[in-house]
């Protein structure tokens, strides 16, 4: 059953281009949730954003909101600082500033702060045509705590379609 849920949500991420997938991280206390979430800060690109937990729509799509200044995470996924990959998705915006407009400018070594957790960027990449397996590979509830930031890139101004995804990976360097 867990594999089916992961596969379905991975397909959602490909279709929507943003989001996260399930994790068996176990119950989380309110204190842990507040400490893990808080706000997202990325000084190198001027990001200071709220984090909005979201569910899925009746059609099974990730319920990404309209805010272009906040980031989104699947409400049942791994929290930043927990074991596995915490995924935060944010919009780029063609008609004004979007929270992740400059995500592709991050470099290894840049710092990302989520709540009380501090991460160091390890990889920045631009991906075209992500398969379900590639998307599923972004998500895990195992291994050391890490962060994945994702947004759309290379917008075709004629069609409005984004041709790539920008994916940033970061490792936990300090938990308060």
TrEMBL record:
Q: Does the keyword Hydrolase apply?
A: yes
> Which keywords does UniProt give here?
Hydrolase, Signal
**InterPro entries according to UniProt:** Sortase (IPR005754), Sortase_dom-sf (IPR023365), Sortase_F (IPR042001)
Pfam families under this entry? Sortase
**Where does the signal sequence lie?**
1-25
Highest taxon listed in the record's lineage: Bacteria
Q: Which protein are we looking at?
A: Class F sortase
Species: Nocardioides flavus
């Amino acid at each position: 059953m867990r594999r089916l849920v992961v596969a379905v949500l991975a397909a959602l991420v490909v279709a929507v281009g943003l989001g996260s997938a399930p994790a068996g991280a176990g119950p989380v206390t309110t204190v842990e949730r507040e400490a893990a979430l808080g706000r997202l800060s990325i000084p190198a690109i001027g990001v200071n954003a709220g984090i909005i937990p979201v569910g899925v729509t009746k059609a099974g799509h990730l319920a990404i909101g309209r805010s272009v200044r906040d980031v989104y995470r699947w409400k049942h996924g791994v929290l930043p600082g927990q074991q596995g990959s915490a995924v935060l998705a944010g919009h780029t915006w063609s008609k004004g500033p979007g929270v992740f407009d400059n995500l592709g400018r991050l470099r290894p070594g840049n710092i990302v702060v989520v709540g009380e957790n501090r991460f160091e960027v390890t990889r920045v990449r631009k991906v075209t045509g992500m398969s379900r397996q590639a998307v599923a590979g972004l998500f895990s509830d195992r291994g050391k705590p890490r962060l994945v930031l994702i947004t759309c890139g290379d917008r075709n101004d004629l069609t409005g379609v984004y041709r790539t995804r920008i994916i940033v990976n970061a490792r936990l360097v300090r938990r308060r």
